[in-house]
Design brief:
Blueprint (H helix, E strand, L loop, with lengths): L2 E7 H6 L3 H13 L8 H9 L3 E8 L2 E11 L2 E9 L8 H11 L6 E7 L3 H9 L3 E10 L4 E9 L1
Parallel strand pairs: 4-5
Antiparallel strand pairs: 1-2, 2-3, 3-4, 5-7, 6-7
Length: 154
């Protein structure tokens, strides 16, 4: 597999529309147990925001995973993460986050929410240096569940 990790923001993110939104939706639809938490239109709207940034993994020119964030000054909110199921457990998410971290100004705080029962994701985020700082009760729907709020400072 020929893996490439690319950073999309600003003009480059705008030029990738709408194909990137469609690819992200399709990956999220396959990766999340209850389907994508966002519609294709939501991905498109998110990617049009000037504060948005996407780090995308490609294998043989096909998008196989991504991390979406919104950055305002020194705060970065990780809004969505997905890796296609056929490429999970191969270090793709780690490569995506490492690329994201390498492009962040310092100091910066990154925040994310993760389902309370999603131990695999929590383990990944802890290995990447995130720590749990709080809990959002009944944050998720379908099924309803608490979210753990995690933070990493670079």
């Amino acid at each position: 597999m020929n893996l490439q990790v690319e950073d999309y923001q600003g003009q480059r993110l705008s030029q990738a529309q709408p194909a990137l939104a469609k690819a992200c939706y399709q990956i999220a639809e396959a990766a999340y147990p209850t389907g994508s938490p966002w519609s294709e239109a939501t991905f498109l709207a998110d990617q049009k925001m000037p504060q948005s940034r996407y780090v995308v993994a490609r294998a043989d020119d096909a998008i196989i995973g991504f991390v979406g964030v919104v950055q305002v000054l020194d705060q970065v909110d990780v809004t969505i993460v997905a890796v296609h199921p056929s490429h999970q457990h191969q270090g793709i998410a780690t490569a995506l986050f490492r690329q994201l971290f390498s492009q962040m100004p310092s100091p910066v705080s990154l925040f994310l929410e993760v389902r309370a029962h999603n131990q695999k994701a929590q383990t990944l985020y802890k290995k990447l240096g995130f720590s749990t700082i709080g809990r959002r009760h009944q944050y998720y729907r379908d099924p309803q569940e608490d979210a753990l709020l995690m933070k990493k400072t670079l």
